[in-house]
Amino acid sequence: MIGALSAAISVAAGAFGAHALRTRLPPDLLAVFETGARYEMYHALGLLAAAWAATRWPGPLVGWAGALLVAGTVLFSGSLYALALSGVRALGAITPFGGVAFLAGWVLLALAALSGR
To answer: d(Cα 93, Cα 79) in Å, to the nearest integer?
Structure first.
């Protein structure tokens, strides 16, 4: 459910960026916003993969993988959305924590697949 909702938010954010923000934001901040939307979609698909993996390889690794993908979305994409809309560049300091959460989530999903073989 969270993966599907995140994908929907990503589509809405992309449309918002392309239509409502194109004339309101400078190109560099528009690119930041679009990066947030793109990465949210990638990781929404990752959440759907984690949900599928939970049916195939149940266990804590898949659960943690999903939680880290959600945390990564909030921290990475959320900080980029906030940075683009507010112009507060300091919010970019949060973004790498989301990236680390994304990486950890993907590694745990891989480990779940390996341990389930």
So the answer is: 8
Cα–Cα separations (whole angstroms), residue 108 to 6, 62, 65: 20, 7, 5
* Nearest Cα residue to 65 out of 54, 80, 76: 54
Gap between the Cα atoms of 34 and 52, Å rounded: 27
CB 80 within 8 A of CB 33: yes
Q: What is the pLDDT of residues 33-71, one digit of tens each?
A: 999 999 999 999 999 999 999 999 999 999 999 999 999
What torsion, rounded to 10 degrees, do the Cα atoms 31, 15, 25, 78 define? -60
